[in-house]
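Task: sequence design from structure.
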């Protein structure tokens, strides 16, 4: 076995591809046609064969400040040399307390109690358990139902998968959390090539009233939605939709959870949360990805004072919220988070999203006349470009575009036949132009 010291970090020489069972990957295809990155800096990855690839997806929607940011890597190095690990069960160390304070200051007013996880999936499941614990602490134990949304994505753990609305994720794993129901998704075929939020709510949120009437408000613990659904292809909500969900949940004593794993940290506008950009405050926000600029795995669940105090003050003596992870508030992740938040602040990166959004919108909608493009939607520094599926081969056209783009030096992301784009917030106007130009060529080549 190679010792770490003997590893050439930027080389793929002599690599055995057989042992790593890759996530969400066609393993057989990849291992026959490997596409490997060996390093990254700012807006670019470098491939194993030495090519530069422009990152139009912030990795997996997560490298919001761009790659290889020295302030963050330096903080990780330093923290590792001081405290490699410190338990946070019944003991503590300063870094997660510092990070929680910084994070609380960036959240919508009233949301300032922070629970740390290691991923978006863990954040989703933590938030759902928090909602159940809240009602339990209030003596409202009949509130066990969780309402998600079709085409929602809340990660891969059982709770998130159950409230999520992706058939492929759910059908394979028959066992689901019991008592879950779903709202309709927010993407209507009637509205195509919409710039920004869709017009009018169209009664979509009011469907929640029907679910409340069906199940009884006294059985529903929480509603969880992404403010903008990302992983299922950038589904931008209608105007007023999130506020209507807020009004209905409040009316019935149901908690509202925004899954901001993608939409957090400046992705949709000049704020740390989409909640603030859209002016709607939920009871709980889930975060991950951009929290550490993706350098060290970390997620967070930020609860309102009311949710926190109800659980903490309303529980019998002892552990109030019987939940946690070995690595909740890990020193390296906390250090990375502190450095990432400082960088976002110092470089005004969230404001950059708002400043660049019109340029981005123009560039993306300029692809409307490309072959097979049937819809384009955008918000902040996010865009979804939907292609017509090939007969009997859903996803094949977009996957071909993905491979062609990679070979042409552009990293895009595809989900079904939708190309989802979300560049780091440091992207320049020239690079936005380059993304659009490269994509135009790729779309013309992809029959
Ligand atoms: C909205 C949302 N929630 C949860 C997750 C899961 O995050 P992770 O892959 O870190 O578990 C994702 C991942 O893309 C996501 O987009």
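Answer:
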């Amino acid at each position: 076995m190679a010792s770490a010291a003997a590893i050439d970090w930027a080389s793929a020489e002599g690599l055995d591809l057989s042992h790593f069972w890759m996530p969400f990957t066609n393993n057989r295809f990849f291992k026959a046609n490997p596409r490997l990155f060996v390093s990254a800096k700012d807006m670019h990855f470098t491939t194993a064969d030495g090519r530069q690839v422009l990152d139009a997806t912030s990795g997996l929607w997560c490298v919001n400040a761009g790659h290889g940011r020295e302030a963050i890597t330096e903080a990780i190095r330093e923290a590792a040399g001081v405290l490699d690990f410190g338990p946070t069960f019944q003991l503590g160390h300063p870094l997660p307390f510092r990070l929680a304070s910084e994070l609380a200051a960036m959240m919508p007013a009233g949301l300032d109690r922070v629970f740390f996880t290691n991923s978006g999936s863990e954040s989703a499941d933590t938030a759902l358990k928090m909602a159940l614990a809240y009602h339990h602490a209030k003596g409202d134990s009949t509130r066990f139902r969780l309402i998600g949304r079709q085409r929602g994505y809340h990660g891969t753990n059982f709770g998130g998968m159950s409230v999520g609305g992706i058939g492929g994720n759910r059908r394979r794993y028959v066992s689901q959390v019991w008592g879950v129901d779903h709202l309709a998704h927010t993407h209507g075929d009637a509205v195509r090539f919409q710039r920004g939020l869709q017009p009018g709510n169209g009664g979509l949120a009011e469907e929640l009233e029907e679910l409340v009437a069906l199940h009884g408000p006294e059985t529903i613990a929480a509603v969880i939605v992404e403010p903008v659904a990302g992983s299922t292809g950038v589904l931008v909500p209608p105007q007023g939709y999130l506020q209507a969900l807020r009004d209905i949940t409040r009316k019935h004593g149901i908690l509202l959870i925004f899954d901001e794993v993608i939409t957090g940290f400046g992705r949709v506008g000049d704020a740390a949360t989409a909640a603030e950009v859209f002016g709607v405050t939920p009871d709980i926000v889930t975060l991950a990805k951009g929290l550490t600029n993706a350098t060290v795995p970390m997620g967070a669940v930020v609860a309102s004072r009311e949710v926190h105090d109800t659980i903490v003050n309303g529980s019998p003596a002892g552990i109030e919220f019987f939940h946690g992870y070995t690595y909740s508030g890990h020193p390296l992740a906390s250090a990375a988070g502190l450095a990432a938040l400082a960088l976002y602040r110092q470089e005004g990166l969230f404001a950059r999203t708002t400043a660049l959004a019109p340029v981005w919108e123009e560039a993306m909608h300029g692809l409307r006349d490309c072959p097979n493009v049937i819809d384009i939607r955008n918000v902040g520094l996010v865009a979804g470009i939907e292609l017509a599926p090939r007969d009997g081969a859903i996803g094949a056209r977009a996957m071909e575009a993905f491979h062609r783009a990679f070979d042409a030096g552009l990293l895009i992301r595809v989900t079904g036949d939708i190309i989802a784009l979300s560049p780091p917030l440091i992207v320049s106007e020239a690079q936005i132009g380059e993304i659009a130009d490269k994509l135009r060529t790729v779309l013309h080549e992809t029959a």
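Residues 73-346 form a domain with the Aspartate Aminotransferase; domain 2 fold (CATH 3.40.640.10).
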